[in-house]
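Bug #77: duplicate submission created two jobs. Keeping one. Sequence:
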Amino acid sequence: MIIVFCIDDNYVKYAKASIASYRKHNPQAKIIIVSEKEGIEVDCDGYEVIKLPKTFRNRGYGDRITNTAYLKLFLPQLPYDKIIYVDADTICQYPLDELWNMPCEYINLCESHVYGIKQASAIGAKKYGLTGMMVMNLKNLRHINFTGKCLEVEATYPTPETGWQHDETCINVAMARKLNFIDHKFNYCHNRSYLQPILEKDAVILHYVGKDKEDMLCQTKYKTLRMVGKKIKGANVAIVGNAKSIFDKAWGKEIDSHDFIIRFNRGFFAKPSSQGVKTSMLMLATNLTYQEIRSFNAQFVINRSKHYYNPAHATVGNEERMELKRKLGSQPSTGFMAIDICLYFGAKHIDLYGFDAERTPTFYNPDGYKTQHSYSEEEKIILEYQKQGLLTIHY
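Kept job's structure:
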């Protein structure tokens, strides 16, 4: 599977969230960024940049459509036979195997929302296709000179009465009889009206068109914790667990020397020389009294789920917890979730204290307490993170 974006500097901040969503649901896909310049960079991993010749346009300068959008017309120059093209203001919500495996003679795309009805009428078409997502058979498009046909339309076709004349219009006119319309769940536009609407959560690809792009940035992982994420990014973080073995060590000063310190639940300061006394974030999977919470003097208080009613700055979303549950085969521990949060927001380094995979009990639990967590599975993943240099476990 090959997924292609056309972006410029105006779309970099959206591309980060967009690429991450496609990578999440399609980890084996090849991600290609097409740009007019070679040095464009997006703050994420796993993509390749291909430079195509500088585009040109004969009209529409100054409208909301950037020159980069016209790179779509040149995509058959790519060294592939088939691609999925997507705009950088889209979010992938499910795997794209169904979309990729559909037969495609030239272009598969989705019909527009109701705004497109006027444009379809203006160009004499029954349907108007949205080009923010296209499955493109590049081999066949090269054979019929797709680029040449589109550029001819761009140069000579009369501007429709709607005033909309841009790359999308070129493709709809030039390829009028060669567009295959598929289920609009594959390019469903946020905050737009449809004759046959679906729930946005059921869209495979959700498209943040027009002025709604800022809404897209709220769809990223741990969206409720962005204020915390700003503190974690680039910080040396200590995550302090509650294994009884922590009291055998004198880590207190070392823990408190970190930029950001995370604690959990009933991990009260029983032995400061071992646990330290500073707290940046208190993450709770239990209900505490107001006085108990205040004893941590935490900058941020976070509830692990909506089942807890502590006065808090934020609550972790259910989606993130369920994602980790699928990964582990059991409910993630609060400590494991904290690790995932720190990795996501880009901590410089993470030090784990008081984590021993239940070799000793949690110091505040009663004898015989049975946990719902799989500490052995969590430890396997944590050890792999350590091999990658992402964190250090202190035993």
